[in-house]
Design a protein that fits this description.
heterodimer; A: alpha+beta; Rossmann fold; OB fold (Dihydrolipoamide Acetyltransferase, E2P); 8 helices; 20 strands; 23% helix; B: 585 residues; mainly alpha; MetI-like fold; 25 helices; globular; disordered N terminus; binds adenosine-5'-triphosphate; binds magnesium ion
Chain lengths: 358, 585
């Protein structure tokens, strides 16, 4: 098996999967607005977004379960938009596994191989190998309903990996598992990805899961791609207030830009970071909690009352109430002095640590 | 606080025997025991007794086995019932599949096209086919009129006529049995199969069809068993060579008064029905009929089944590719809706054709009517015979509905609150009147009522109809109770041990919709019931279906069309109301 070194950017590899202006409408509702993205060979891309943002729709369009209203799906440089589902070399892991209840575990896993007309001996060997890979060798003759949720999940993964599709799509595969099992399965999926070298497009609701697994994250909202980038890029350079809010904790101040490079907000006039401009006059400043410190900073501070203090070992999180009822979160390192409850504080930040988003 | 509340029902409960809430089912059990199980058993016993000496004897069965005619009738009955099951499945499956894939809201509306034919009286449906298929019927009038043929086609009084009538009567039952199973199949399984490399044909046959098989078998079973006891359709649409077992039983009793012989024939019919059920239970498990999950078979037979499905899939795949080549992708996509709508037309149109005929100005049932008038409705309303029969039918149906809803309601309540294995047994017993052919129940009741002096009484009719209606009320109310189980339990717990207050204050308001629906279903069951009426409503005191039957035997006339329209309208209005109540509790 080839081991593909993890690279941060999809763009540096040959594109395995390209989606061009893909769009899906159901009558009056738009499930996915025209979207484009490119996924590199062996990349792990996560679609992350709130419910109804079009993640499942995008997966269904890629594998051909749903016909696109517009746009193209290009795999390995060939336009596959018109190829029927069963002829695209794509594996899909469903949210609730979709195991065949009338087939045993072994027969479930053999199904894709049988559909490809493989020889019986090869099927038997591959099924055994794959079952070993997911540590389920002893359950081969059971029926799906005789398995636990985690075991069913692993059968679903095995059924997908057994025929070695070059692209694997997973729709919230861990959504139905408890937290501990999720974390275990995340490691398992990571390992399968490494060992198979497959290109994976993964859907989740859960930002922590997205951060833990992905090479890149595709953030979706309101049937659109909101931002596409590495976890670090999205965390450090969110492009919209939604992106800043969805990944990590943010303090967001919305306002209107003034002529002299400042943003007028409900909490005062804040200086914009160097080079930042808002084109339409409106914008928001995002300041991560770790970039806030106690004490004023010229043009970059707010004042409020401490409403909660959360001690978490290496750091202390202070939550303060601002004038209009909004809250402010700031993080203090181990050595810093912690203010008292209900104490009035002033918090400031360095101008360049803030990010201006639309 | 919560401990005190939880303790009260326990204290109230410990003095009752372990049957617990199942006591509520007792009145129903006794009723069905006396008026269903006993007469049927007695009828079977009669077949094993020498009428002269009263000693045990198998002479009757020997006579059946030794007489060609009877064996032939048996053979015909099985053949017609078997073919009816086969064709009903072939026609019903695509329709059920199409319905199952519709969006929920749309499906509810489309379902009426199956429900209305299901509940439409067999007499009305048969009458409609006589008009459509007869020598001077609609099809022949069109065919000869347009010059396609010069001789009228022989469509009636032969096996073709019987099969059309039987399949038309049974497709709705097949569809309604298939639908819940199909609705329970996760559609993503088919998608999963396709992403795994299965062509649409393979995905359908290897996954969807395989998973729908328990429904197919259940539908086949129910249609087969129901068809065994048919006599209306073969009597009017068949010839002498299509005489079925039930007709033979009727003749034996009404004309020859040969009880042992009728009992033996009924026993054979019942035995066939029970053996079919037993086979089904072995293969699939009876619980699938009530919507439970099928047991998974194992071993050789299962492997063989999967291989056969693989062949079918491969064949179907080639066929589908061919169809696509001929019709294009669009065209082949329209095939299923087209088939579904054609089936709906087959189910609905013949009955609708009766309507214009009821308003004809002619003395004959010619199509299209030469002119329109209300003559035949006036005849109907002016005839004391028809009006008395109608009033009697309404009264009997009303009383039946009250009785059956009460019994069914208490039993459903008992079963919903019981966790013992007796519950399943009682449920099966209450559904048995649906499985045992009606003619067997009717003859058994006739024998019993003859000695109780209940022949030609309203009470006799009401009792008989209540036996038949109880399965429908129980199933309807049980379904509603099931979805309220939790709230019921909570309510019972907080109200303490006062069962009556729970019932009146909580349960009944919650299941009101189900109760009304059950009442209406029972009403319809009685309103167009013929089998029991033939035996029990004696002389001039007839019911509406019995009067129709007598008239149809004598001669077809436009008054029958008017009566059919009345029956059809009454049943349809009740049905649509029942459906509305069932959906919105
Ligand atoms: N078959 C359909 N018909 C009509 N609208 C649909 C259909 N499928 C999806 N939609 C709509 O398209 C939008 C996107 O749905 P989609 O299933 O892609 O969301 P999602 O991001 O996967 O959400 P979730 O996280 O809840 O799974 C939703 O508003 C949904 O209502
Ligand atoms: Mg989804």
């Amino acid at each position: 098996m080839t081991v593909v070194a993890i690279q941060p950017h999809g763009g540096e590899r040959p594109p395995k999967l390209v989606v061009e202006g893909l769009c899906k409408r159901y009558g009056a509702t738009t499930a996915l607005e025209a979207s484009s993205l490119s996924v590199g060979e062996g990349e792990f891309l996560t679609l992350l977004g709130p419910s109804g943002s079009g993640k499942t729709t995008l997966l269904q369009l890629i594998c051909g379960l749903v016909e696109a209203s517009e746009g193209r799906v290009i795999i390995d440089g060939r336009d596959q938009s018109r190829t029927p589902v069963h002829q695209r070399d794509i594996g899909l892991v469903f949210q609730h596994y979709a195991l065949f209840p009338h087939l045993t575990v072994a027969e479930n896993i053999a199904f894709p191989l049988k559909m490809r007309g493989r020889a019986a001996a090869e099927i038997a060997r591959r099924v055994t190998d794959t079952l070993e890979m997911v540590h389920l060798g002893h359950l081969a003759q059971r029926f799906p309903r005789e398995l636990s949720g985690g075991q069913q999940q692993r059968v679903a993964l095995a059924r997908c990996f057994v025929y070695q599709p070059s692209i694997i799509l997973m729709d919230e595969p861990l959504g139905a598992l408890d937290k501990k099992l999720r974390e275990h399965m995340q490691i398992e999926i990571k390992r399968l990805h490494r060992e198979s070298g497959a290109t994976i497009v993964y859907v989740t609701h859960d930002q922590e899961e997205a951060l833990a697994l992905s090479d890149r994250i595709c953030l979706m909202n309101h049937a659109r791609i909101e931002q596409l980038g590495t976890p670090r890029e999205i965390y450090e350079r969110p492009r919209t207030a939604f992106a800043a809010d969805f990944i990590g904790i943010s303090n967001i101040f919305r306002g209107t830009a003034t002529a002299n490079g400042a943003l007028e907000t409900a909490h005062g006039l804040f200086a914009l970071p160097d080079g930042a401009r808002c084109d339409d006059g409106k914008g928001a400043l995002v300041i991560r909690p770790e970039h806030l410190h106690l004490g004023a900073e010229a043009g970059n501070s707010v004042s409020g009352t401490v409403s909660e203090i959360v001690y978490a070992g290496s750091e202390t999180r202070i939550i303060a109430r601002l004038g209009d009822g909004a809250t402010l979160v700031l993080r203090l390192g181990p050595g810093e002095t912690v203010p008292g409850l209900d104490e009035r504080i002033v918090a400031g930040w360095q101008r360049d640590k803030a990010v201006l988003v639309s | 606080m919560s401990g005190a509340i939880a303790a009260r029902p326990h204290r109230a409960g410990w003095r009752l025997p372990r049957l617990g809430p199942l006591w509520l089912a007792l009145p129903g059990v006794i009723f069905l025991g006396v008026f269903f199980a006993y007469p049927v058993a007695q009828l079977l016993g009669l077949s094993l007794v020498d009428p002269a000496t009263g000693a045990f004897s198998t002479a009757t069965y020997q006579r059946i086995a030794g007489t060609d005619v009877y064996l032939r009738v048996l053979g015909i009955t099985f053949r017609i019932a078997g073919y009816t099951a086969l064709y009903s499945l072939l026609i019903g499956y695509p329709l059920a599949y199409w319905l199952a894939r519709l969006p929920d809201m749309f499906r509810g509306r489309m379902l009426l096209f199956v429900m209305v034919p299901f509940w439409t009286s067999y007499l009305v449906k048969t009458f409609a086919w006589m008009i459509v298929l007869g020598r001077s019927g609609i099809i022949n009038a069109l065919a000869t009129g347009s010059g396609i043929v010069d001789q009228p086609l022989a469509l009636l009084h032969n096996e073709f006529g019987v099969m059309v009538g039987m399949v038309h009567a049974m497709v709705p039952l097949a569809v309604m049995t298939l639908l819940p199973v199909m609705a329970g199949i996760d559609r993503r399984l088919v998608q999963a199969a396709q992403t795994l490399g299965a062509s649409p044909a393979h995905a359908f046959w290897l996954v969807y069809f395989k998973l729908s098989l328990p429904g197919v078998a259940a539908a086949g079973l129910l249609v087969f068993i129901s068809s065994l006891g048919f006599f209306i359709v073969p009597a009017f649409l068949g010839g002498r060579r299509e005489t079925m077992l039930a007709q033979l039983i009727i003749t034996q009793i009404q004309e020859l008064l040969n009880w042992p012989f009728a009992g033996a024939l009924a026993a054979m019919m019942l035995a066939t029905a029970l053996i079919s059920c037993w086979l089904y239970d072995r293969l699939f498990g009876l619980s699938t009929i009530a919507g439970g999950s099928a047991q998974v078979s194992t071993g050789r037979i299962r492997d063989l089944g999967l291989v056969i499905l693989g062949w079918i899939a491969a064949l179907a795949g080639k066929l589908a590719a061919l169809t696509r080549m001929v019709l294009g992708k669009r065209g082949s996509g329209l095939l299923l809706p087209l088939v579904a709508w054609l089936t709906i037309a087959f189910l609905v149109v013949p009955t609708l054709l009766v309507i214009p005929l009821a308003f004809t100005s002619s003395q004959f049932l010619e199509f299209p009517p030469p002119g329109y008038s209300l003559t035949w409705f006036e005849t109907y309303f002016a005839s004391p015979l028809w009006i008395q029969a109608t009033i009697r039918s309404f009264l009997v149906a009303f009383a039946t509905a009250v009785a059956a809803t009460t019994v069914g309601g208490f039993t459903a309540l008992a079963l919903a609150n019981s966790r013992t294995r007796w519950g399943g047994l009682i449920f099966a017993f209450f559904l048995a009147p649906m499985i045992v052919p009606r003619i067997v129940i009717a003859v058994g009741l006739f024998y019993l009522f003859a000695r109780m002096g209940l022949i030609a009484t309203d009470l006799g009719l009401i009792i008989g109809h209540t036996v038949l209606a109880i399965p429908f009320t129980l199933v309807t109310i049980a379904a509603v109770l099931k979805s309220y189980d939790q709230r019921l339990d909570q309510a019972a717990a907080t109200l303490g041990a006062n069962r009556l207050r729970t019932l009146v204050g909580v349960t009944i308001p919650l299941v009101k919709g189900g109760l009304v629906a059950a009442f209406l279903f029972a009403f319809i069951t009685s309103f167009d019931e013929l089998t029991i009426a033939i035996f029990i409503s004696g002389g001039i005191k007839t019911t509406l279906p019995k009067q129709m039957w007598d008239d149809m035997i004598l001669q077809l006339n436009p008054t029958l069309a008017a009566v059919s329209v009345v029956v059809f309208v009454v049943v349809t209005v009740m049905l649509v109301t029942a459906e509305r109540f069932r959906r919105t509790p």
